[in-house]
Amino acid sequence: MKKQKHFHNIQTKLLAAGSIMGLLVLPLSACSLLPKEEAALAPPLVQPAKVQYNVAEVKQGNIVKRVKGVGTLTPINNNNLFYSEAGGRLKKIHVAEGDVVKKGQVLAEIDNGNLNFDIKQTEIDQKKAEIHLKQLQSQQADQYAIDIAKLDVESVQSKLQNLKEQQAKSVLTSPIKGIVTFVGEQKAGDIIEAFKSIIQVADTKQLQLLYTSTSGDEIADIKIGMKAGLTLNGKEFTGKVVHTPQDIPADIVAANPDLYKNSIFISIDSLPKAAHVGDSVDFEVITKQKDNTLIIPKNGLRTLIGRNYVQVLDQNTKRELDIEVGIISSTEVEVLKGLNAGDKVILK
Q1: Which of 50, 139, 233, 269 is the most exposed place for a label (fewest CB within 10 A)?
Q2: Rounded to whole angstroms, how far apart are CA atoms 203 and 239?
């Protein structure tokens, strides 16, 4: 009985040990049942994108440099009106800029005090002297009395002439039929300065074109005598450059540097009938031109500290070439050396 019990205990222990071993073997068996991992593939090679350049071929052609703008019609001659003597007081200015005036029209006057009264009284004295002379002559008075009466008439006439000359000097009148182009800043009561311009009057029939640029460099190539194409209200006509900043006398420039340092004046060959002072006129002046020369777009030219060069595309290879340039217009550049027709220039 004891032997059987002992055998049963041994058998129980063996079963338990077997169960434990089974549990240990199970994970290993389970691992062997999973699929094997595949080896990682290398990433595909990426081909670099081709660089695309914006290019233009060097061409043979004509190049023109021109100055274009909008000018204003202004009178050629201004009559400058002033007083030649100082000391009087300005009484009134009768006109404003832009007024159309007649020849002989009073434009300004100074206070002449009792001058008008004195003239009237002297005219009366002249009549009295002339009557007295006639009276003596009719009475056949002695020659001495008649001679004295004649001298009295001459004296009064001389005085009257002097007073009228003073009166004439007290007013400024227009010497022509025209337009007032300038009125000074003087006001009533201001003391008159000798030879200081008070009013300017211009002949509206004689006009020229005035163009003032924002920079003197823009008109630096314009010379006297260059032809100009003009357009007013769709009508085309012609003109010629008559003044540039280089040709205007220094004293005139000093008087108005803002105007004359950056301005050109163009005479007009045949002014349209509809043209008036102040009208805006489109103009074009060709300053340089050349035929049958090498040309590239302006945005193909590169500069660096005085160096002129381009980038060219040669069999898909980019390289730099120094060049010598000639005329440079608003859109094109003339190439004197460094390139050949057909070369491909890379644009900026």
Answers
A1: 50
A2: 19
Judged on CB neighbours under 10 Å (0-12, 13-18, 19+), 58 is: buried
Quick one: 138 exposed, middle or buried, by C-beta within 10 A (0-12, 13-18, 19+)?
exposed
Nearest to 57, CA basis, from 341, 332, 348: 341
**What are the φ/ψ torsions at residue 294 (nearest 5 degrees)?**
-80, 135
* End-to-end CA, the chain: 111
Token couple for 205: 């029939």
What is the per-residue pLDDT across 254-263, written as a single tens digit (0 to 9) for each?
777 777 888 9
Q: 3-class SS at 334? A: strand
Q: Which two tokens stand for residue 34?
A: 């999973």
Q: Give the model confidence (pLDDT) of 63-110 as tens digits.
A: 999 999 999 998 888 888 888 888 788 888 999 988 889 999 999 988
What is the average pLDDT value for the chain, to the nearest integer? Answer: 84
* Greatest distance between any 2 Cα atoms in the chain: 211
- The closest of 266, 265, 263, 329 to 296, measured between CA atoms, is 329
CB atoms near residue 104 (< 10 Å): 10
What residues are paired with 182 via a beta bridge?
A: 200
The two structure tokens encoding residue 103: 């020849």
Question: Quick one: CA torsion of 185, 187, 191, 194, rounded to 10 degrees?
Answer: 40
**Sheet (strand 171-173) strand order:** 90-93, 106-110, 171-173
Q: H-helix or E-strand containing 235?
A: strand 235-243
Q: What is the C-alpha to C-alpha distance for residues 182 and 165, in angstroms, rounded to an integer?
A: 26
Q: What is the pLDDT of residues 258-291, one digit of tens each?
A: 778 889 999 999 888 888 888 999 999 999 999 9
Query: Taking a C-beta distance cutoff of 8 angstroms, is the pair 328, 339 a contact?
Result: no
| φ, ψ of residue 252 in degrees (nearest 5) | -70, -40
